[in-house]
Write a structure and sequence with these properties.
The protein has helices spanning 29-50, 52-61, 82-86, 121-137, 156-168, 180-190, 199-211, 233-243, 355-362, 397-414, and strands spanning 101-107, 115-120, 145-148, 171-173, 194-197, 223-227, 246-253, 258-264, 272-274, 279-284, 298-304, 315-321, 323-324, 334-335, 340-341, 346-348, 351-353, 368-377, 384-391, 420-424, 439-441. With 445 residues, the protein is α/β, with parallel strands linked by helices. The strands form 5 sheets. It has a 9-stranded mixed sheet with strand order 4-3-5-6-7-8-9-14-13. Strands 10-11-12-15 form a 4-stranded antiparallel sheet. Strands 20-19-18-21 form a 4-stranded mixed sheet, covered by helices on one side. 47% of the residues are buried. The protein binds 5'-O-[hydroxy(phenylacetyl)phosphoryl]adenosine. InterPro entries: Adenylate-forming_Reductase, AMP-bd_C_sf, AMP-dep_Lig_C, AMP-dep_synth/lig_dom, ANL_N_sf, PA_CoA_ligase.
Length: 445
């Protein structure tokens, strides 16, 4: 293993009884902060001494890991982003020799070079443990059958969720995304209690059930653990009603680990607890980079505390949310729902808006479905947004068009943007088997 002048204060331990919380899960806030201080001290030295790109970045910024004495000192260190990792493509950001690496994943993003991430054996152990924590909090029990729809492959969703569920003691059905008819058949035949999916693809699976004349409320499913894309409270209600299940959030990103950075409790459904024994979150103002207080909305930043293969320092996620005090796990703070990504923000004639705001309003109109896309154009140098939205099966086209007018009115009064609406037939918009693309911005073309 790579050396570091500061001894690593962490060695993963397998919890004896996976149905019970890990000891770190129930630590007090003071205990967590003491752990974070110790682990940050190690991480900063470890990254500096083992990844040339970090040494270069810290030196350029005029800061040395020895200057870290207490949590507030983290603010002295520079931010990193996807570009920082891309410059080290493919393996130069790894802090360990390849002989220590056991897994490599990559996130493609929408454009350009993929970002490569890696895990040592200990990192994989930690990942499984944290995903298992999330699932347990979301109502999954050892012995449950888990239908895993997250994509297997380079995407961290499939394998990340898979090993977490195995760790918890579940029987995993590694279905992956797509093949909706087969999803329906296997859920019918194998009778899983749990489904893991992106929220939008779960709606497509619901349509698949209906197509086969099956009411989605009649399946064996009891709990869904959903993530990998932004979703709203309205979407939670829609999914819970559609399947007669509970739906909890799971959050994560490849660069920080993958799914399982934060997870939600089925009892409180009040946002995801970030596992702060492994990650130190911060919220910053995305425009002037100032660190904001707990409760203030801004961009989420993460520093890893225990990662070996790919330590990550003050990584800018571009995810917009806020930190809240812990509830069922008081030592760990929660994150509010992600309202959007700073790079997904649409600026329409000077007004900022996110697809999640449209989702929230659209789901309040009973004749409109949650399936929509946003098309942005600029005819005659004026921004124009068209919402293409499917009517609900049970509504006529006329009723849905009436609903569309109501939606346009709500968008105007609540968000301040003008939009036109195009109500289309059920099933006519493109579906995704993973993360859904909502925005089609043609303004630059
Ligand atoms: O999407 C990891 C993951 C897989 C999380 C399965 C949850 C479930 P990436 O492909 O690197 O990793 O994408 C990370 O997806 O920065 C967010 O913008 C978005 N995202 C992930 N989870 C949520 C969530 C995985 N629960 C990016 N709510 C992140 C909102 C989410 N956005």
């Amino acid at each position: 293993m790579t050396t570091c002048s500061v001894p690593n204060p962490y060695k993963p331990t397998k919890s004896a009884d996976p149905s019970q919380p890990d000891p770190e899960e129930t630590m007090s806030r003071d205990q967590i902060e003491a752990l974070q201080t110790e682990r940050l001290n190690w991480t900063l030295h470890y990254a500096y001494e083992n990844v040339p790109a970090y040494k270069e970045l810290f030196d350029e910024h005029g800061v040395h890991p020895d200057e870290f004495k207490e949590l507030e000192d983290l603010a002295k260190f520079p931010y990193t982003d996807k570009e920082f990792l891309r410059k080290s493509y493919p393996f130069k950001s790894f802090a360990t020799p390849m002989s220590e690496i056991r897994r490599i994943h990559a996130s493609s993003g929408t454009t350009g070079q993929p970002t490569v991430v890696a895990y040592t054996e200990d990192d994989l152990e930690t990942w499984g443990t944290l995903v298992a924590r999330c699932f347990r909090m979301s109502g999954v029990k050892p012995g449950d059958k888990v239908h895993n729809v997250y994509g297997y492959g380079l995407f961290t969703g499939g394998l990340g969720a898979h090993y977490g569920a195995e760790r918890l003691g579940c029987a995993v059905i590694p279905m992956s995304g797509g093949q909706t008819d087969k999803q329906v058949q296997l859920i019918q035949d194998f009778q899983p209690e749990i489904i893991l999916s992106t929220p939008t693809y779960l709606l497509t699976i619901a349509d698949g059930f209906r197509k086969h004349g099956i009411d989605p409320r009649e399946t064996s499913l009891k709990h869904a653990v959903l993530g990998a894309e932004p979703w709203t409270e309205e979407m939670r209600h829609e999914i819970e009603r559609t399947f007669d299940i509970t739906a909890c959030d799971i959050y994560g990103l490849s660069e920080v680990m993958g799914p399982g950075v934060a997870g939600e409790s089925v009892e409180t459904k009040d946002g995801s607890h970030i596992w702060e024994d492994h990650f130190r979150p911060e919220i910053i103002d995305p425009f002037d980079d100032r660190v904001l207080d707990t409760g203030e909305p801004g961009e989420l930043i993460f520093t890893s505390l225990t990662k070996q293969a790919l330590p990550i320092i003050r990584y800018r996620t571009h995810d917009l949310t806020r930190l809240l005090p812990g509830s069922v796990r008081p030592g760990h703070r929660r994150m509010g729902r992600i309202t959007g990504r700073s790079d997904d923000m649409i600026i329409l004639r000077g007004v900022n808006l996110f697809p999640s705001q449209i989702e929230e309003l659209a789901l309040q109109v009973p004749t409109l479905s949650p399936h929509f896309t946003l098309e942005i154009t600029r005819p005659k140098r004026m921004d124009q947004m068209t919402i293409h939205i499917e009517r609900r099966e049970e509504a006529t086209l006329e009723e849905a068009q009436e609903g569309g007018k109501k939606l346009v009115h709500e968008i105007k009064t609540k968000i301040g943007s003008s939009a036109s609406i195009n109500v289309v037939e059920p099933g006519s918009l493109e579906r995704s088997s993973g993360k859904l693309r909502r925005i089609y911005d043609h303004r630059d073309k």
